[in-house]
Amino acid sequence: MSGPIIHYFFVQSPWSFFGFRRAVDIAKKNGVEIIHKPCRAADVWQHGGGVPVSKRPKPRQDYRLVELKRWSKHLKIPIHLHPAHFPIDETFAARTIIAVQEDGKDVTGLTDTLMGDVWLRERDISDPNTVREALVSNHLSVEYLEYADMPHTAQIYDENCQSARERNVFGVPTYFVGDEMFWGQDRLAFVDMALRT
Length: 197
Known about the structure:
Blueprint: E1 5-9, H1 14-30, E2 34-38, H2 41-48, H3 58-75, H4 91-102, H5 108-119, H6 128-137, H7 144-148, H8 151-166, E3 174-177, E4 180-183, H9 188-196
Parallel strand pairs: 1-2
Antiparallel strand pairs: 1-3, 3-4
Helix pairs in contact: 1-5, 1-9, 2-8, 4-8, 5-6
């Protein structure tokens, strides 16, 4: 099946972080585009019946940490299990990604940097200075900081969230190949297979 891969994610999701580079590599290997759609956790959870980590029952919270450790070791991607800035308002970071994307630029490096800022470097991605440094480190113009706050960018962010609801996305990362949905970074092998059949 031909692509593209449609990728719904939260910038601050550890599972999105674990899957991000692998999804990009799968798209590249199969010669298809991957379209990143950052969206709001509140919108996805409200539609799909999910709740923030802090409001989940303790057994689920505890097991989440077990799985994070397990996948971190398996993928050889170190993370802080309790990063200093999580949960966090990721609106500005997400809109900056969208602003760069709307200008036709590749957002792979920027998105990976911002996710790593949360889970590796324990930085505050709601702080414009953190986002500015992520732009600079990826050789992108700091003018995107201004575009991030423009109504057009906010509208696209809202449209991403609406699109996620319409496609019944209930958690992230979620990938689509055609109309087929794959929830979770542990389903990436199936995304790869779908592209090859």
